[in-house]
């Protein structure tokens, strides 16, 4: 812990010496962003939240495999980029109707009810004895999607970097600033 704090102090001191638009600061912030994106994507590959908790498994009636990995769209949409001396991390994917953030639904969980009609259409691989309108299509009155956190944030949306993430990001910034690690 002492070594981590010393490195944090060195990075902070070096950043204070530089202007926020200097190439060194840009490299350091870009390095921080890359670490966050990589860590988030590692969570997708392992099926775990940033805190290390396993995601709730899929309902085998609808799909087998790993949660949030069916098409790879959400995984591939994760972006982390520098905006000035800050980092923006997230996804811009929306539900098919465009009304909701797909990332927020999976991060926090949701109950999805059809906006109109008798039920929501869900297309997927059916593995259980569910009444279908046609092969591969079912109608749901309500779908409960459990929270499967992939972003390092708490329930209020505040960033909450796990210590191992913070240490990796700090080390990447120190390398970008050419500090001894």
Percent in strands: 5-15%
Terminal residue distance: 14 Å
Helix vs. strand class: alpha+beta
Number-wise, the strands total 7
Largest sheet: 3 strands, antiparallel
Number of helices: 5
Molecular structure report:
This protein is an alpha+beta fold. The chain folds into 2 domains: 116 residues, no CATH class; 36 residues, no CATH class. The chain is 36% helix and 15% strand. It contains 5 helices and 7 strands, in the order H-H-H-E-E-H-E-E-E-E-E-H. Strands 4-6-5 form a 3-stranded antiparallel β-sheet, with no helix packed on it. The chain has a two-stranded antiparallel ribbon with strand order 1-2. A hairpin with a 2-residue loop joins strand 5 and strand 6. Helix 1 packs across helix 5 and helix 2 runs antiparallel to helix 5. The radius of gyration is 20 Å and the shape is elongated. It starts with a helix and ends in a 5-residue tail after the last helix. The relative contact order is 0.19. About 7% of the residues have low confidence.
Annotation keywords:
three-stranded antiparallel beta sheet, two-stranded antiparallel sheet, 2 domains, 5 helices, alpha+beta, elongated, 181 residues
Q: How would the blueprint of this fold be written?
A:
Layout lengths: L1 H16 L5 H24 L26 H5 L1 E5 L2 E5 L11 H7 L1 E3 L7 E4 L8 E3 L2 E4 L2 E3 L17 H14 L5
Antiparallel strand pairs: 1-2, 3-7, 4-6, 5-6
In brief:
The chain is α+β, with helices and mostly antiparallel strands.
